[in-house]
Amino acid sequence: MLELHGITAGYDPRKPVVRDVSLTVHDGEAVGLLGPSGCGKSTLARVAALLHRPTAGTVVIDGEPARGWRHRAPRDQRTAFGVVFQQPRQSADPRLRLRDLIAEPLRATGRRAEATERVRALAPGVGLSEELLARRPHEVSDGQLQRACLARALVLRPRWLICDEMTAMLDASTTAALVGVVETYRRESGAGLLAVSHDPVLLERWCDRTVRWGDRGAALNDAAPAETATSPGSTAP
Amino acid sequence: MTPPTPSTPSTNPKPSTPSTTPTPSTPHKRRNVSAQGGPVDGGPAQGGPVLDVDGLTVRFRMRGGREVAAVTDASFRLRPGECLALVGESGCGKSVLASALLGLLPGNARTAGRALLGDLDLLAADERTLARTVRGRRIGLVPQSPAGHLTPVRTVRSQLRETVRELTGARGSALDEAVPAAAERAAFPADHLDRHPHQLSGGLAQRAATALALVGDAPLLLADEPTTGLDRALVDRTADELRRHVDAGHALLMITHDLVAAERIADRVAVMYAGRIVELADAAAFFGAPGPRHPYARGLLDALPERSFTPIPGMPPELGALPDGCAFAARCARATDACATVPVFADGLACHHEEEPGA
């Protein structure tokens, strides 16, 4: 079980973009996080994946509080998460061939020996041919690169997947295909999912339940970020 | 859309090409072109098309003699007050088509066919003509990612001011007045004019970029993925605002993979696959009944979470290695031996096996 308790987080201590938000993702559960641009939902997703240290609150992973954040998070907790971001061009190292991009988490965790086999096992599922695996990011389309980023997120067999606007850049068919890949993995592994999106129809179709963000986000032009982010219905049923 | 040429600022660039579309008058007169106003291109709607594209083909020559067929034989027309949505998967050639119309293709591209804007063939026009009389003046570009399109170190006012000055020749107090007026046409709030792009929300940055595109009163607006990355409420608002400019008489070519936005504002839809337009249809018939006629278009619509949320199997072919015959056949449930030949585009469709209505 993944629990977020009373998370307050942001980039300026005086102006948190997330205030006192609590959220639970049960084992095998798919939770959608819905809200307008700039409301802080991506920040919350980063906190959940131990990628951003909150100013208050705790993340509890299977009953154990997070023991560190970012690169200081202990490996067993860090590798429990697979994360896919919105913009594959910005999240993928432009120098790596797709096969190395996918295998990098294995190398980083000292499991280099499994790399070839794991990539070979994953690639057909995400629709990447041998020929595409040999290319670098600038030689493939956004959709193909996002397929590789998803494979990379799955390569360590995470307990939770955090998909932050994974499909916002993609066309309808690629969106449906990638959601299919995530769901296939979740069925066979029992992994949980936190999917962030601004598309209610997508989340309704994809997730077991959707948490709707409070109305007023913290977009720079909105005068009153004070009442940011209470998450009605954010406690588990 | 940064219109000015790097030429000497003292020359007041005047369109030199004869054209059926009158060039814009001075800004203080044009401010009256309102939402309910008549067609901005001067010619009434019954006049000829704003843009007449016939057999547009773009090839890129790559290293090792390889050739990429980015756009093949695209033909369509766009009338004043009409919005055509060009939809398709990423990498299908949509944006290359837009670049070709603006004369912004890289050096290794070769084009064939015609793209008539009035009586000017955009494919044959030289860079000087395009820079001085077309971009910004006869074609306004609403960019993808406005935040990246605006100059980060200058205020919106300063950027609008430069564009107004270069495109209309306004100076002094006329220029000071024209800037807020230009902002207003895109519903950009005047009290935000002195902000820098990073101080704007996504929606306001989009409006700032749209304001720049509208300054030259171009009869043709070209929007390249104007809604990507925006949330649904902003998509709807951006789409509605673009529609307002269409209703004011502009012709709009909207390039998008966002079918929901396309459904919201388009009069007609062109579906592109592997560099070819495979279906060109009335938007109401396409999104409603009887629905799309091409199996690819049907698959794309069915992939929406609003519909069956099933992807089309496989991926589009590489534009550098297109199969002989129909490029969609490998992914198509209806494919037969007939698909070994490229289907001819006729009556709005290029397919050997048209979908049955409502099937």
From TrEMBL, chain A:
Record keywords: ATP-binding, Nucleotide-binding, Transport
ABC transporter domain boundaries: 2-233
SMART domains: AAA
InterPro entries: AAA+_ATPase (IPR003593), ABC_transp_ATP-bind (IPR050319), ABC_transporter-like_ATP-bd (IPR003439), P-loop_NTPase (IPR027417)
GO BP: any one term: transmembrane transport
GO MF annotation terms: ATP binding; ATP hydrolysis activity
Entry keyword Nucleotide-binding: yes
Keyword Nucleotide-binding carried by entry: yes
Name this polypeptide is given: ABC transporter ATP-binding protein
Source organism of this protein record: Streptomyces cinnamoneus (Streptoverticillium cinnamoneum)
UniProtKB/TrEMBL annotation, chain B:
The keyword Repeat belongs to this UniProt entry's keyword annotation: no
GO BP terms, alphabetized: peptide transport
SUPFAM superfamilies hit by this protein: P-loop containing nucleoside triphosphate hydrolases
Gene3D superfamilies for this protein: P-loop containing nucleotide triphosphate hydrolases
Keyword terms: ATP-binding, Cell inner membrane, Cell membrane, Membrane, Nucleotide-binding, Translocase, Transport
Topology of the protein relative to the lipid bilayer: Peripheral membrane protein
Coiled coil ranges: none
Highest taxon above the source species: Bacteria
Localization: Cell membrane
Cellular compartments per GO CC: plasma membrane
Family annotation (InterPro entries): AAA+_ATPase, ABC_Ni/Peptide_Import, ABC_transporter-like_ATP-bd, Oligopep_ABC_C, P-loop_NTPase
Single Gene Ontology MF annotation: ATP hydrolysis activity
Signal peptide as annotated in the record: none
Positions of the UniProt region annotated as Disordered: 1-51
Biased composition (Low complexity): 8-23
Residue ranges occupied by any ABC transporter domain in the UniProt entry: 51-299
Similarity-based family: Belongs to the ABC transporter superfamily.
PANTHER family, sorted: ATPASE AAA-TYPE CORE DOMAIN-CONTAINING PROTEIN (PTHR43297:SF14), OLIGOPEPTIDE TRANSPORT ATP-BINDING PROTEIN APPD (PTHR43297)
Protein name as it appears in the record: ABC transporter ATP-binding protein
Organism, as annotated: Streptomyces cinnamoneus
